[in-house]
Amino acid sequence: MRLQDLSRDWARRCLDIPRFCLETLGIDLHRARLVLAYSAGVDSTALLHILSCLRAPLKLTLTAAHVHHGLRPDSDHEQSHAVKTCAALDIPCATTRLTIPAHGPGIEARARLQRYAFLEEVRLRYDAAWIVTAHHGEDLAEDILLRLVRGTGWPGLGGMQGVDHTRRLLRPVLNWAKRDLQTFLSEHGITWCEDRSNLSDRHTRNRFRHTILPLLQRENPQLTKTLLHLWRLARVDEDYWERVLPPVLPGQDEYVLDAASIPPHPAQRLRVFKKILDAMGPGQALASHLFLLDKAWTDHSIGCTVQFPGDKIGCIAVSGIRFSRQQRRPLPATNI
After folding, report:
1. Residue 3: in which H helix or E strand, if any?
2. Of the candidates 243, 276, 283, 278, which has an alpha carbon nearest to the alpha carbon of residue 262?
């Protein structure tokens, strides 16, 4: 299927994607080399076919990457479907099978880490500029609500980034509704695989998707558009503070914020704290913890230590604030 085979309305919607990427995300898709995270589900299937339609006019180079998690009986069928679909579109499809224990804490998180490691491997293998995912408006809404419940501070409360330069991630359909992606496939007779695990309310995200989000949409049918405005405002604020605040080298285990360099206004202080903590690695700094650290500083509580997610701590000293990683003590040996 080519762009000229689509109706005028669908062709316009598809061409809105490179416009959104350029005007909102600052990314030019013309002649881009892309790796699409392709699960064979409805969202990524729609994006695969849309990018295939845009391949000629934008001179894109496309590769699909499919991960077999080995956790569900349907995984074999999904991989087979993915390979066949990509072959029909003349798009290379890289596949891998992960080995993840079916039980134990944090299985989704471990699977996610392995999945993105494979996507990055494929990106490097094909010399691609970006890993593209099919996160859409409802995904963004769920992410914002989950962050709200966790107590995430601003501008992190605005949800996932549309473009992540560090991880080379690009989310070009954040301004699309899920129903639009599904309608695109249905109207063009394109099949996809249903992930039945998405129907279970065992996972927090699914409970938000099936229960909380529909209730909020009943109160405001335009909720996803409303939250997209919040997302855009967060990105504008994020860009402003990134330009205003002093640079912080990422990946260090210790940062010392000299007292003379700590800003007098709490708005700027909180953002400096968060920038340092983010640079230290994974673990979102919650608003409540940032306020605790700020209060400890303004109260001159020398020696006060505030614990942050990711084993990160901020400690008040006479000379300023010391940020470091907390060393975990090994578990004591037990006699069996």
Report:
1. none
2. 276
Other beta carbons within 10 Å of 177: 15
Residue 62 sits at φ, ψ, to 5 deg, of -110, 140
Range list of β-strands (E), the chain: 33-37, 61-68, 93-97, 130-132, 163-164, 169-170, 254-258, 305-308, 312-317, 320-325
- Estimate the share of the chain in helix, then strand, then coil, as percent rounded to the nearest 5: 50, 15, 35
- Render each residue's pLDDT in the chain as its tens digit; 336 residues: 899 999 999 999 999 999 999 999 999 999 999 999 999 999 999 999 999 999 999 999 999 999 997 767 788 999 999 999 999 999 999 999 987 665 555 667 777 888 999 999 999 999 999 999 999 999 999 999 999 998 888 888 999 999 999 899 999 999 999 999 999 999 999 999 987 766 667 778 888 888 999 999 999 999 999 999 999 999 999 999 989 998 999 889 999 999 999 999 999 999 999 999 999 988 888 889 999 999 999 999 999 999 999 999 999 999 999 999 986 554 444 333
- DSSP code at position 322: E
pTM above threshold 0.85: yes
The rounded distance, in Å, linking the Cα atoms of 177 and 146 is 19
Residue listed under structure tokens 């349907």: 74
In whole angstroms, what is the distance from residue 17 CA to residue 316 CA?
47
One-letter amino acid of 249: L
Q: What secondary structure does DSSP assign to 62-81, as a single string? A: EEEEEEE-SSSTTHHHHHHH
Find out whether the peptide bond into 155 is cis, omega within 30 degrees of 0: yes
Which of the 8 DSSP states describes residue 153?
-
Contacts of 71 (CB under 8 A, 6+ apart): 100, 102, 107, 111
CA-CA distance, 336 to 332, in Å (whole number)? 13
